Amino acid sequence: xxxxxxxxxxxxxxxxxxxxxxxxxxxxxxxxxxxxxxxxxxxxxxxxxxxxxxxxxxxxxxxxxxxxxxxxxxxxxxxxxxxxxxxxxxxxxxxxxxxxxxxxxxxxxxxxxxxxxxxxxxxxxxxxxxxxxxxxxxxxxxxxxxxxxxxxxxxxxxxxxxxxxxxxxxxxxxxxxxxxxxxxxxxxxxxxxxxxxxxxxxxxxxxxxxxxxxxxxxxxxxxxxxxxxxxxxxxxxxxxxxxxxxxxxxxxxxxxxxxxxxxxxxxxxxxxxxxxxxxxxxxxxxxxxxxxxxxxxxxxxxxxxxxxxxxxxxxxxxxxxxxxxxxxxxxxxxxxxxxxxxxxxxxxxxxxxxxxxxxxxxxx
Length: 364
What we know:
Blueprint: H1 2-12, H2 20-48, H3 51-70, H4 77-97, E1 101-107, E2 113-119, E3 127-133, H5 140-153, E4 157-161, H6 167-171, H7 182-193, E5 198-208, H8 211-221, E6 228-231, H9 238-241, H10 258-266, H11 271-278, E7 294-299, H12 308-315, E8 323-328, H13 343-358
């Protein structure tokens, strides 16, 4: 907590009205200072041969590099070098800690590839598995930190992917965001089904935030998937598109410069054109094709994606044999966007449910 406090201290002193350029640079410098310090400490531990501790330090440094990178403009070269530093420290940290996880890749046409983190529970398997979609702007390393241990404790393997328009897919290969999420889900299903450690008959899919669109869309059209869970729903972009009709959106942005990010990940010039490309990601007319168990978990006080997205997603899944909605209330906590105010509550509920449906374990 002291490391996070160090990063926040200088930011909390910025006066109201500070320009976007200045505040973005301050964010970058503040998180970089902490990231580089923790990286140095990790390397000192590694030099002593204390590799378990070194792994913890480098793992934390990686997450701080990711925080520094998160709000940087796409045209700033430091965004890419900082992402590379995060990647280096993250996977070295995993290896030194002895995590049962590794980075894996598969081809994605035109000489490109997509990457994922495969996290395995203890034992030889075959294990049930879940393909986990990012949100609109999040990346696989973040979700590994949030969810991997909760899944592993329940005997569930997770493939945390960087789908098109996110993470490595966007930053390294320029693979733009897509509407048809079943395409990449099918490619990763083929990969998982070929592993001895994975039971091909017990593979599901999940997604967080805008992945609440990707996951049910994938389950609707990739019929080999056996379950779907949404860590926060995303039915369509109607709440956001009101801004172009002169209306009030009533929602908050998730990034310091959401418009720039929207243009970049769609490869479109112009803010409205980019948002209209995004708005094609719409679950209307899709959810009746979901024929496997469906869970949607949503926060009552979600200010980025209103609760109606979750209610409509479940209501329209009329052919799912088990369509369930769990709303975390303000009194319970975990009530903000994707439970960001208390991540373990969302994580435990989702992976208990997935273990129940896919044949993992819900008791030690």
